[in-house]
TrEMBL record:
Lineage: Bacteria, Pseudomonadati, Bacteroidota, Flavobacteriia, Flavobacteriales
Keyword Iron on entry: yes
SUPFAM superfamilies (UniProt xref): Radical SAM enzymes
Domain Radical SAM core intervals: 64-301
Protein's recorded name: PA0069 family radical SAM protein
Origin species: Winogradskyella alexanderae
CDD domains xrefs: Radical_SAM
């Protein structure tokens, strides 16, 4: 099966079995043949939005190599459909598949702004940067309709609380008005993920994300408005985008980014089978080479869970990637750095009341 005959607009090409559910669902060939003959659709490819009502919205991050203390996710599941996404595994906790369900069954947390405000008002809460999209993208297509992320940014601005954003969607520019106000008090840092300058590669890896050109434009517009931008060249996938590191670094530096970081792809849990199925269907000629090189970065395995190593990799291929990144930073990002966000003014803005003394 080639890309033209794959499931349009989706990354995953199957719904892999949820490891927490005993019952299995099988798409039989005779059923698919019947649907073909009768002109019927074997499965609905439309995205479904499902309201959920969590009791809290901010999560403490205990992983020592993630680089954030707290995260929040207005949505679970992500319509962007990035085939390599580590967040796919988390969809199994909700009773869905990490495959197509992750892209088509989007859980929406409409109460997120209220839950966030309740937390920021607590006397016991001490300001520390909360990162939106620690798991799934807060500017995925659902945000166009629900505007939960925008409402949360208004809460951060109201209480003068530092916030970070991770996204690969140019929709962030819709909220430029709020971001500029946050930036005046050094309360915002934006991390934009750009994995390739090739639109063909981008469409294969991340079918429903913003184009690379739009993301570079977002970096430029944000930077021109004094909003600090870090670009995540992540993940680097050997023999798919590993040759683009220097070109990507040059492009984002010219757009005004203050820093770049990278991770090496790792295919934990269900993602290994999902990625393997995908690459054998979309890039069959390169599949074995890519899979073997990914495994070479992780001690002969596709998955990697060791803190400090899991996102950096090891071995000769990983070393080549790290060396190229060091060269890119030295060449294009000398004397640039992301600022430390301001966590010192939130305390005086908790109650929203004027103080006498």
């Amino acid at each position: 099966m080639n890309y033209e005959s794959s499931i349009k607009g989706r990354g995953a090409q199957l719904n892999i079995q949820n490891r927490f559910i005993e019952l299995t669902h099988e798409m039989r060939n005779d059923f698919l043949e019947y649907c073909e003959k009768e002109g019927e659709v074997s499965q609905c490819n439309k995205t479904k939005y499902i309201d959920v009502y969590p009791k809290t919205i901010v999560n403490k991050v205990s992983s020592p190599d993630v680089g954030m203390a707290y995260s929040m996710n207005p949505y679970q599941g992500c319509e962007h459909g990035c085939i390599y996404c580590y967040a796919r595994n988390s969809h199994e906790f909700w009773g869905y598949s990490a495959g197509l369900d992750f892209e088509r069954m989007i859980l929406v947390k409409k109460e997120a702004p209220k839950l966030l405000e309740s937390l920021l008002k607590k006397k016991s809460w001490k300001a520390k940067t909360i990162v939106m999209s620690g798991n799934t993208d807060c500017y995925q297509p659902a945000e166009k309709y629900y505007e939960i992320t925008r409402e949360c940014l208004k809460v951060f601005l109201k209480y003068k609380h530092p916030v970070g954003i991770i996204t690969k969607n140019a929709l962030i520019l819709r909220d430029l008005d709020i971001l500029k106000q946050l930036a005046k008090d050094n309360l915002i840092a934006v991390n934009i993920s750009i994995t390739s300058l090739s639109e063909k590669t981008r469409r294969l890896l991340e079918p429903r994300t913003a184009t690379t050109i739009k993301r570079l434009d977002a970096v430029k517009i944000l930077s021109n408005n004094n909003i600090p931008v870090n670009v995540m060249l992540a993940p680097i996938i050997p023999s798919i985008n590993s040759h683009e590191i220097l070109l990507l670094a040059k492009a984002v530096a010219e757009a005004g980014a203050l820093n770049i970081v990278h991770t090496i792809v790792r295919l934990n849990g269900a993602i290994g089978d999902i990625f393997t199925d995908w690459i054998k269907k979309t890039l069959p000629d390169k599949a074995d080479k890519v899979l073997n090189q990914i495994a070479d970065c992780h001690g002969g395995r596709l998955n990697e869970s060791r803190f400090g190593i899991r996102m950096r990799g090891e071995g000769q291929i990983a070393k080549q990637i790290h060396d190229t990144m060091r060269l890119a930073k030295k060449k294009y990002f000398k004397d640039r750095a992301m600022p430390k966000l301001n966590d010192g003014i939130h305390e005086n803005n908790k109650t929203q009341q004027l103080k006498l003394f």
